[in-house]
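Thanks for the sequence, V.! I ran Peptidoglycan hydrolase right away. Repeating your input here for the record:
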Amino acid sequence: MGNLNTLINRMRYWCQTVSLGYSQNDRWNIRPGGNCDCSSLVIWCLREAGFDTGSATYTGNMSAQLTARGWSRIANDGNPQAGDILLNDRDHVAVYLGGGQLAQASYSEHRTATGQGGDQTGQETNIRAYYDFPWNCYLRYTGGTTPTPTPAASNKLTVDGDCGPATVRRWQQVMGTTADGVISGQLHPDGTYARPNLYAVAYGPGGSDLIRAVQRRLGLTADGLMGPGTIKAIQRHLGVTPDGSFGPATVRALQSRLNTNTF
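Predicted structure:
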């Protein structure tokens, strides 16, 4: 079952964290340094987020395939919801991230349909303010999303590799900080601090008390920012390969440790 938070985070990842270019003749080469087009990127991220996309391959058949699988076609009223797919059936598709922003693949470095691998301009795939394309509709998921992981009746976290509010709240409880389920005060994703698997996060100044507590425990400078150095230290502490990416393997190790009420 799909998760809209994951869809949003995967669109953020591909449009902002890595260099992904635009080229219609290389549209399924979706990898850092590769290429996509607007529809292949959205379909790819939907699949990464656990949604069934059927035989959707381009903007022209996305509506039919997704509305048969739990999505509703909503009239464009200028007020999309986070996770909505913004669709022009003939020409373009993007995902609304919330907060007045959307993520999309736009055009190649030549402002044409084809180009080299990777984002040559920083805008081939991008996040920008919402605009009315015009969109023919919003595709909105109404079939239910994967619930945020919560402790089971035994008060154990589900060891699923998703660092959602339940995992963060338990981590905060173990570290003795305010347990609100959010890692706050983080830098906006910029290629250094983007964490696709960390969706219980708020951006802004100040850092996180939880991360400062973790950093102090690990003997690090306590700035409250969950950058790659802090993540590698967490991974070494948990016995995970220190690659600097706060991914599912790291989160599962963290969840297992938290289930013993320790870090």
